[in-house]
Design goal:
With 202 residues, the protein is of the alpha/beta class. It has a single domain, classed as Maf protein. It is 31% helix and 21% strand. It contains five helices and six strands, in the order βαβαβαβββαα. The chain has a six-stranded mixed sheet. Strand 1, helix 1 and strand 2 form a beta-alpha-beta unit. Bound molecules: inosinic acid (IMP). The site of inosinic acid has 18 residues, from strand 3.
Length: 202
Amino acid sequence: MTRTFNRTDKLVIASHNQGKVREIRALLEPLQIEVIGAADLNLEEPEETGHSFIENAELKAHLAAQVANLPALSDDSGFCVEALGGAPGIYSARWAGPDKDFNQAMERVSTALLASGSKSRRCEFVCALSLAWPDGICESFEGRISGELCWPPRGDKGFGYDPIFMPTGFSQTFAEMDPADKHAMSHRAIAFNQLLEACFIS
Ligand code: IMP
């Protein structure tokens, strides 16, 4: 049976990525839950040793829940390019290097795609969300959104790979869209809606 979240509990957002924390806070806002960022608790960023988005999300959520002794929500997400066999995928953050330079990461994607010789620009964003409790119970959900890789990058809203991702059926990249429009359709919102339905009582 799925464990449900008690709304009087505080919830830790187990992420140090400010872009993700901002989006998760916006998604949680209507629920009026007391939310604490991992950075506010001085939580360490664990090494992501999993082989899938869900494995990585679960290890981050478990660690934060144990250390904070509170329920913790984590996000592991990434940008997957079909012609690159799904890369950068779970290594999306690492492609930005130690300086977290996403202009460099986007250049790297574009160069790899050119070198692949493929004409396909199909890509997707994937987001795994895991909600873990201090006693070790954990619930995980995955959301995906497909699109086309856009080059050169466009727009200055959002974060990470947003400037090169154009969702199917739209003519703006995620970085050109109003953030509310991105939040309404993103991989994170899709995973979040599954989480809400399963774990939160309205
Ligand atoms: P991780 O989940 O901490 O391994 O990092 C995932 C990386 O994927 C982030 O640093 C971003 O670069 C990228 N990413 C995940 N979600 C998004 C998004 O919504 N927009 C742009 N980039 C994203």
